[in-house]
Specification:
- With 319 residues, this protein is of the alpha/beta class.
- The relative contact order is 0.13.
- It is elongated.
- The longest helix has 32 residues.
- It folds into two domains: 229 residues, Alpha-Beta Complex (Spore Coat Polysaccharide Biosynthesis Protein SpsA, Chain A); 69 residues.
- Strand 2, helix 2 and strand 3 form a beta-alpha-beta unit.
Length: 319
């Protein structure tokens, strides 16, 4: 199979049939063998009914239905698991991503040798500067800096193309869909390109992802991904180092306090007990925190990235 199109969606019943017709026209014009996997992320409208109707009529249409809303990343993860095409294309279901871009994206993967190609919506509607434009620019600038992928300008674009090996080698969880290029890079797929794509105006409903909350979560996810990719397999390197530093600082401080008391006693003064000094308790607390961090490093080494429940999603139906 040439192409798998993975479409995560939530309450997009008005757009699904139109999107499929558009994808089908492009695929037929280019003689691609393909499948379309609609990942219904717990929609409360009639989105799943539309998917079932399309699947009954068109054999290339497949569907995954979550019992509840998990998020875009789980939807993509389950879609990636079932994708069989040599090239996997992801796009949103709101008709803002153009299927007309698929042939060129396919060519960049198969002919130009890219592992991953990310869309760049240069003509994206700007919106409110405080709630959308400025946070978006800051988010993308930070993502480029942290990830080291300096040629990408729009990490959050839903229209992307992947070599099949890429989606089978990465684990998308939580809200990490924004950082799939970073995940791919960490997995060893370093030929990452960008394509300028056309941005369509939303035709039905309103965006499901708006406001500052998604940008705050985006930064937190980015820091989490950076930490996991840097120290995920060697947590002792960070916790052990910090713990050792704090323990040494506390130990030196305790020695200084004790030495000060001994010098005062030697000079005939009455310096009092070591425990009379608040610095003694500060140094003791520092040593205890250092010891806890050191032990956290040991525990982290034993349990790091071994959670069997991370991608356990309840799916009620699969077509």
């Amino acid at each position: 199979m040439d192409i798998s199109v993975v479409v995560p969606l939530y309450n997009e019943e008005e757009s699904i049939a139109e999107l499929h017709a558009w994808i089908k026209r492009v695929m037929d014009e280019n003689n691609f063998s393909y499948e379309v996997i609609f990942c219904n992320d717990g929609s409360t409208d009639h989105s799943w009914d539309v998917i079932e109707e399309l699947s009954a009529k068109y054999p290339e249409v497949h569907g995954i239905k979550f019992r509840r809303n998990y998020g875009k990343s789980p939807a993509l993860f389950c879609g990636f698991e079932r994708a069989e095409g040599d090239v996997v294309i992801t796009m949103d279901a709101d008709l803002q991503d153009s299927p007309d871009e698929i042939p060129e994206l396919y060519k960049m993967i198969m002919d130009d040798g890219y592992d991953l190609v990310s869309g760049y919506k240069m003509n994206r509607r700007q919106g409110d500067p405080l709630s959308k434009t400025i946070p978006t620019k800051l988010f993308n600038a930070t993502a480029r800096k942290v990830s080291g992928i300096h040629n990408l300008h729009d990490f959050n674009c839903g229209l992307k193309a992947y070599r099949k090996d890429v989606v089978k080698s990465i684990e998308v969880y939580g809200e990490m869909h924004r950082y799939i290029p970073y995940l791919a890079k960490n997995a060893g797929f370093t030929k990452i390109g960008e394509k300028r794509v056309h941005h369509q105006a939303r035709q039905h409903g309103v965006s499901k992802f708006m406001g500052w909350n998604r940008f705050v979560n985006g930064y937190l996810d980015l820091m989490s991904l950076w930490f996991i990719s840097t120290f995920g397999r060697k947590p002792m390197h960070v916790f052990g180092f910090l713990g050792s530093i704090m323990f040494l600082i506390g130990l030196i401080a305790a020695i200084v306090v004790g030495a000060y008391k001994l010098i005062g006693l030697y000079n005939g003064n009455n310096p009092g007990l070591v425990t009379d000094s608040p610095y003694f308790y500060i140094s003791l607390t520092t040593m205890l925190i250092g010891t806890q961090l050191f032990l956290a490093g040991f525990l982290g080494d034993m349990i790091s990235r071994n959670s069997s429940e991370r991608n356990n999603y309840q799916i009620s139906k699969v077509i």
